[in-house]
Amino acid sequence: MKTFLPPLTVQEEREYLALMKDGSVGATNTLIERNMRLVAHIVKKYQNVDEETQELISVGTIGLIKAVKTFNPDRGSRLVTYAARCIDNELLMYLRARKKTMRDVSLYEPVGTDKEGNQIRLLDICESDEPDVEEELDLKWRLHRLQMLLPKLLTKREQEIITMRYGLGGTKAFTQRQIAAGIGISRSYVSRIEKKALAKLREGFENEIE
Questions:
Q1: Biggest CA-to-CA distance, the chain
Q2: Distance of alpha carbon 9 from alpha carbon 101, whole angstroms
Q3: 180: three-class secondary structure by DSSP
Q4: Buried-most residue among 15, 63, 120, 195 (CB within 10 A)?
C-alpha cells in the first residue's frame, strides 16, 4: 500500500477548513490528501473480503471526498471522526451492492430442469433470507472494540447500565424505566449516566481512529 501524507494537526485542519469555506479548491484538495491515511486505515478492516485493495481505496476515497465537502465544523466534532463514518458507510454500501449484484446474477442462473422440462434456477431452491456477511463482520468488529473499551473507560455503574440498556453480551435489553426500577434510582438519573457513558465511549472510538 502506498505511503500517504501525514495527517493534519487540529490547528492545520481548522485553517484549511476555513479556507475551503471561503472557496479555496487547494484547501479542499489538501484536506482530502492529508486524510488519505485514514482511508487506508479503514480499508484494512475489509482485507478479508474478496476485493482488490486498490478498488477499496478508491471507494473509500469517494467517501472521504463526500465527507470533506459536507463536513460542518460548527457541530463540534473533528473532520477525521465524521470522515471515518462516511468512508465506512461508502465501503459498506459498495460491498453490499456488489454482493447483491453477484447474488442476483448467480441466483438467476439455470441449474437444471424439472420433470416437466421447466428450467430450474438457483433462486427456486435457495433460501432468500441468507445473512449479510459484511454486516455481520462489521457488527462483530464493532462489538469487540466496544467490549474492550467498556472496562477501560466506564465506571462499574456505567458499565452496568450500558450493558442492561443495550443488551450487551447476549443479555436482554431494558428500557431506562426498567433499569431504574431494578437498581433503585430514578429514570432521569439512569438517562444522565447513559448519556455520560455514551459520550466516553464515543470519544474512545474517535481516539482509536486518530
A1: 73
A2: 41
A3: helix
A4: 63
Per-residue pLDDT of the chain (210 residues; tens, 9 = 90+): 467 888 999 999 999 999 999 999 999 999 999 999 999 999 988 876 656 788 889 999 999 999 999 999 888 788 999 999 999 999 988 888 877 655 554 555 555 555 566 655 545 544 444 445 555 665 666 667 777 888 888 999 998 998 888 887 777 889 999 999 998 999 999 999 999 988 888 887 766 555
Enter the DSSP assignment of 186: -
Sort strands 110-113 and 119-121 into parallel, antiparallel or unpaired: antiparallel
Q: In the structure grid, which three cell numbers stand for residue 169, read together?
A: 453480551
The letter for the amino acid at 141 is: W
Query: Residue 104 is placed in which grid cell?
Result: 442476483
To the question of pTM greater than 0.85 for the whole model, the response is no
